[in-house]
Design the sequence.
């Protein structure tokens, strides 16, 4: 569980490699688009702020969070250096939440381990909508910012390890 004091938008800009020339794909769920749209904005703004050309950011939407698996699997086949998967699942009254969260996490984890390009986990899973709003630009910052920084660092890692 994230600390209630950790701001997802806080990072040391000096620890982020120069992202010039990096290409990033973002697959974003349409479900809970008030949240995922804000996460997307955070990711794009942070990528650009750190040197990624806006034309080198490819954004595609999928209907829901479970579809992030297929969407990301297809995106890694394109001319991108990393993929950020953005979604939001809010707990309801049925076990649907557990199945979607577990299945999406397992699918993205499998994809991340099997591909040559990093797949960044940007699925937020919350107990209520307020927690989601707190994590997409509210009092907890924006998880999209954190995902963008992670993508930049992982692209840099992949380039340095080769």
Sequence:
């Amino acid at each position: 569980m994230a600390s209630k004091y950790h701001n997802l938008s806080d990072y040391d800009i000096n620890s982020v490699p120069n992202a010039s020339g990096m290409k990033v794909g973002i697959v974003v769920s349409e479900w809970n688009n008030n949240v995922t749209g804000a996460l997307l904005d955070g990711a794009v703004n942070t990528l650009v702020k750190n040197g990624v050309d806006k034309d080198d950011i490819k954004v595609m939407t999928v209907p829901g969070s479970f579809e992030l698996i297929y969407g990301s699997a297809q995106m890694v086949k394109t001319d991108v250096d990393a993929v950020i998967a953005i979604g939001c699942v809010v707990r309801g009254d049925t076990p649907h939440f557990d199945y979607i969260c577990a299945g999406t996490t397992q699918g993205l984890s499998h994809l991340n381990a099997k591909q040559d390009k990093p797949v960044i986990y940007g699925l937020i899973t919350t107990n209520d909508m307020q927690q989601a709003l707190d994590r997409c630009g509210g009092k907890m910052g924006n998880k999209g910012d954190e995902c963008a920084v992670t993508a930049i660092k992982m692209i840099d890692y992949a380039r340095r390890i080769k």
